[in-house]
UniProtKB/TrEMBL annotation:
Cited NCBIfam families: TonB-Xanth-Caul (TIGR01782)
GO cellular component: cell outer membrane
Organism: Novosphingobium guangzhouense
Protein name per its UniProtKB record: TonB-dependent receptor
Keyword Translocase: no
Recorded topology in the membrane: Multi-pass membrane protein
Record-annotated TonB-dependent receptor plug domain positions: 53-160
Signal peptide coordinates: 1-22
Keywords of the record: Cell outer membrane, Membrane, Receptor, Signal, TonB box, Transmembrane, Transmembrane beta strand, Transport
Family (UniProt): Belongs to the TonB-dependent receptor family.
Localization: Cell outer membrane
Pfam families: Plug, TonB_dep_Rec_b-barrel
Annotated TonB-dependent receptor-like beta-barrel domain residues: 475-921
Length: 960
């Protein structure tokens, strides 16, 4: 509170110290009486700037025209143009890396974003947040990012609030028609996909007075991207090199380590033996090796995203000051991934082994858990060699993840008197999400091995010699898994009453007050299974392949992977045989392998232990007062929102680990008072200082509260909930300085600081899971262990930083006329988060997942009567991936990278226009490295290539 008083006093003093301004109204920036009309990019930028300038809160906006001229396939990507907003990129688009939530980071906080559509809460099934990667920009009238929302906004997001504004019939003067058709092309996947959009809106005067308006809109967009990548196993994996021409090697042939006599005496072959560094002397550790960063797998993934949207709105204004409305919005998003993996198990016999100096100490390995002197554990790492007689397998998989969200709302807006406005709104949201991820693994035929040569560059270079990888005779069928077959079904209602009472001739402009009641119910079911063996007897594949079914006997079920892996930049270019992803659909695998024990698709067995039901009710009331004095050179608002939340959770548990699953129910209730205060001082009419304070909460996700363990038997990862999680709270402070040169041109600088209590943090560790099979994919864990993540409430933390932004067209009198068509936008964000955790007994301060400390965006603009164009470069520094691992060597961070996007629009005759777009011209991706940002190794763990995307769209617009 003392901080608020001091900052408020300083702000008041800076404005009162301008006596001349209190007596004289400054000259307008526009010529009196001149009607200036702006269109195109300038119009969209002007609209966004005026909202930023005139809103009492800290907000940045993007308008529909702006969105329509950006080369963005989804709303999440559009939002990265806003200062302080970052989005993870997965599969060639802005997207969450885990398929849930928006993947957005606002001012350093990930997973703390509130999603609103026209001010209403909007969510994806299984989450509190809407998955904005599934929304198409064509359906959007505008986007607002509130970075420190006031008390009148719906609570639930300490990071920020994203409001999607949709079109309404009364937004137009009369008949308005818009249509678009186009397509996108990915140059790595060599595939063209379509996009369509249509909207019609009209309004009519009614007999006897009043008017009515109707709007209908629909969109369909399909995008295709390809992701070539090279994942590696994490962890330390300490090795000791034994040359085949050494006495130690000879002593262990046929005994001890049972080394292969075939290599005895060769000076170019080395055996890599397991070693525990703590059992050898400090001097010997200098020569110990680690295989960290050896990328054992080759992965080729196709991502097809299909977005469908329907929007309808009816507005009826029977008389001035009274309006009734009904609105509906349907959003469907299908994420479809086909994947083909070549999985290697490198042998311990390496020819021409190459190494380089790389120190793994106890801090990097385990955070110096013993609290000692941080001793060296190994001094070298493997950088290349030919791994003789290695094993290979392939995996072909198909994932369908479908999101459907529908909202219908209705209400009234009534100007009850000159002083009182009354708004009532009721909405119902229905959301469903299903995920079906199935795969078949092929094993090598009896006795087959390969020599695999690796050179660990970026990307690593690989060559493979041995039996033909594209031949059916080289492979046998191994097993079938449906490792993530799950469903979420959610619904909720909300009713809100908002009133505004306006005052005349008073420093108190108005008082806003209201109440809201809302519910959300979440139901979760899991039908996953693994290890259905595709053998003659339905048992695990025998080492001698005696019960194997040859791929050659069912060659129609397999296909060859693409032969342009990473465009040839990784040495090996592909062409290995995998189970065809399309052949996985329906009951095809079940019918072809009757001994595998696969249940029919429509009667899969539920994992009852994972079943979950969650119900929440919230009751909120608020009051906000808007004020202004000194001829409105000082104005702002102050208010408080009080919210009570009641939750009910029913999970299934096996308390005695006997297989007897029983329900476990719990309830909780909590109440928070959330004050807010915003103050703006106008030093001049176009120069202002803005201060904001607000307290907010973020409730934990439903899945994070579930005490059950959910694992993926293919990837080897899992999650376990924490029923003791409490909401995060944050006290947020903002101070910004803004100067507006014109209705379009401005510069701004903002400072922000958030004091956060109870940070949500994911902590990962290797754990044994009773009764679970050995994971299909190698992780950093040993043996049959899984890499398990649990969310906890960490200690108190902070998020603070600086935002700089500005834009201008060069339409200044001292510049030549041709320069007036050019402009530039730019923004820079510095954010630092401290999220204290105790790991392995050590207190660690870490940044939030997916948060870059530095990011910036630079946009070049051009516009004349015929052409408008943008060239956008966006860059971000390194960031931690999902969260801290218990051991830093198991962690992953994203390297810094930049993306270049471009668009050009041509205004054609008869209301037509043509847009040509290009995205990711730099062909960059979020490559993953070993460690974490504060313990960065510079060793690449997974290299990605997604290719470039090009698009063209023909639009028709009539009416305004």
């Amino acid at each position: 509170m003392n901080d608020i008083v001091r900052l408020t006093s300083a702000l008041l003093a800076s404005c009162i110290a301008m006596p001349a301004l209190a007596q004289t109204e400054p000259a307008s920036t526009e010529t009196a009486g001149q009607d200036i009309v702006v269109t195109g990019i300038r119009a969209s930028l002007q609209s966004a700037v005026q909202m930023k300038k005139n809103t009492m809160e800290v907000v940045d906006s993007i308008t529909a025209q702006d969105i329509g001229k950006l080369p963005d396939p989804n709303v999440a990507e559009t939002l990265t143009r806003v200062p302080g907003v970052q989005a993870y990129r997965f599969g060639g688009e802005a997207s969450s890396p885990v398929g849930n939530g928006s993947g957005l980071t606002i001012r350093g906080l990930t997973g703390q974003t509130g999603s609103r559509v026209d001010g209403r809460a909007y969510f994806t099934a299984g989450s509190r947040e809407f998955n904005v990667e599934g929304a198409s920009p064509g359906m959007v009238a505008g986007l607002d990012v509130f970075k420190n929302p006031s008390a009148e906004h719906i609570e639930g997001a300490i990071g920020g609030l994203v409001n999607i504004r949709t079109r309404k019939p009364f937004d137009f003067k009369g008949l308005a028609v818009s249509a678009a058709a186009g397509g996108r092309y990915n140059d790595l996947g060599k595939k063209l996909t379509p996009e369509y959009f249509g909207m019609v809106s009209n309004r009519w005067d009614l007999p006897g007075g009043g008017e009515i308006g109707v709007l209908l809109a629909a969109s369909y967009a399909k995008s295709f991207n390809r992701g070539d990548n090279t994942p590696s196993v994490g962890g330390t994996q300490f090795r000791r090199a034994i040359r085949a021409d050494s006495a130690e090697y000879a002593d262990n042939v046929g005994t001890g380590l049972n080394l292969d006599a075939a290599y005895l005496g060769r000076s170019d072959v080395t055996y890599l033996a397991d070693v525990d560094p703590t059992t050898v002397s400090a001097s010997e550790r200098q020569n110990l090796l680690t295989s960290v960063g050896v990328q054992n797998n080759i992965a080729q993934e196709d991502y097809t995203r299909t977005r469908k949207g329907l929007n309808g709105a009816l507005q009826w204004r029977p008389a001035s000051g009274l309006e009734f409305y009904v609105e509906g919005n349907y959003n469907s998003y299908l994420y479809h991934q086909n994947y083909r993996f070549l999985n290697a198990t490198d042998s311990r016999y390496a020819q021409d082994l190459s190494t380089t100096a790389f120190a793994i100490d106890e801090m990097l390995a385990n955070r110096n858990a013993n609290g000692g002197s941080n001793d060296l554990l190994s001094g070298q790492r493997i950088t290349g060699g030919t791994f003789l007689n290695s094993g290979l397998s392939t995996t072909g998989g198909d994932e369908h993840r479908r999101y459907k969200t529908f909202v219908i709302a209705g209400g009234t807006k009534w100007a009850a008197s000159d002083h009182l406005d009354v708004d009532f709104d009721f909405s119902y949201v229905k959301a469903d999400q299903t995920q079906d991820n199935r795969a078949v693994t092929l094993a090598s035929a009896a006795g087959l091995t390969w020599d695999i040569t690796r050179d660990l560059g970026r990307p690593q270079q690989v060559s493979i010699t041995g039996p033909d990888l594209s031949s059916a005779s080289s492979w046998v069928f191994n097993n079938y898994s449906n490792a993530t077959n799950q469903a979420w079904h959610d619904d909720g209602i909300s009713a809100a009453l908002d009133l505004v009472y306006k005052f005349d001739d008073s420093f108190l402009k108005d008082i806003k007050f209201g109440a809201r009641y809302a519910t959300q119910k979440d139901r979760y079911r899991n039908y996953s299974f693994s290890n259905r063996y595709l053998t003659t007897d339905g048992l695990a594949l025998a080492a001698d392949r005696s019960n194997a079914i040859s791929v050659a006997s069912m060659a129609d079920l397999v296909e060859t992977s693409p032969t342009n892996f990473m465009n040839g930049e990784a040495g090996y270019s592909g062409g290995y045989l995998t189970f065809s992803p399309d052949a996985l659909l329906g009951d095809n695998v079940r019918s072809r392998f009757p001994n595998a024990g696969i249940l029919p698709e429509d009667s899969l067995a539920e994992i009852v232990l994972n079943r979950r039901y969650f119900s929440e009710k919230s009751y909120a009331g608020y009051v906000v007062a808007d004020f202004g004095f000194l001829d409105d050179r000082i104005k702002g608002n102050a208010g408080v929102r009080v919210v009570k939340t009641d939750t009910f959770v029913r999970a299934m548990v096996d308390p005695l680990n006997t297989g007897n699953v029983v329900p476990s129910e719990s309830t909780s209730s909590y109440t928070y008072a959330l004050p807010s205060f915003n103050l703006t001082g106008y030093i001049t009419p176009d120069t202002l200082v803005r201060f904001g304070y607000g307290k907010g909460i973020t409730r934990p996700e439903f899945s994070a509260l579930n005490p059950s363990l959910i694992i993926n038997t293919v990837s080897g990862v899992g999650t376990i909930g924490n029923p003791d999680l409490k909401p995060q709270t944050a006290n947020s402070f903002d101070l910004s300085f803004e100067h507006y040169f014109s209705p379009v041109n401005y510069v701004s600088a903002a400072l922000f600081y958030k004091k956060i209590d109870g940070f949500f943090s994911g902590v990962s560790s290797c754990q044994s899971v009773a009764g679970a099979p050995t994971p299909t994919t190698n992780t950093s864990c040993s043996g049959d262990q899984y890499f398990i993540t649990q969310t906890i409430n960490a200690e108190k933390g902070t998020a603070k930083g600086i935002e700089l932004a500005g834009q201008t067209f060069f339409d200044y009198d001292f510049l030549p006329d041709f320069a007036h068509h050019f402009g530039v936008q730019g923004s820079f964000t510095y954010v630092e988060t401290k999220n204290p955790l105790t790991l392995n007994g050590q207190r660690v301060n870490t940044m939030q997942p997916l948060t870059s400390k530095y990011s910036y965006s630079v946009t070049g603009l051009y516009e004349d009567e015929t052409i408008s164009a943008r060239l956008v470069y966006t860059w971000r520094s390194k960031a931690i991936l999902f969260g801290l691992a218990a051991n830093p060597i198991d962690g992953r961070y994203i390297r810094s990278f930049g993306l270049l996007d471009a668009s050009i629009n041509f205004n054609l005759a008869h209301n037509f226009s043509l847009a040509i777009t290009a995205s990711n011209l730099t062909n960059q991706a979020a490559d993953r490295f070993v460690g974490e940002p504060d313990l960065a190794t510079g060793i690449e763990r997974q290299h990605f290539m997604n290719g470039r995307n090009f698009g063209a769209t023909l639009r028709y617009n009539f009416g305004s």
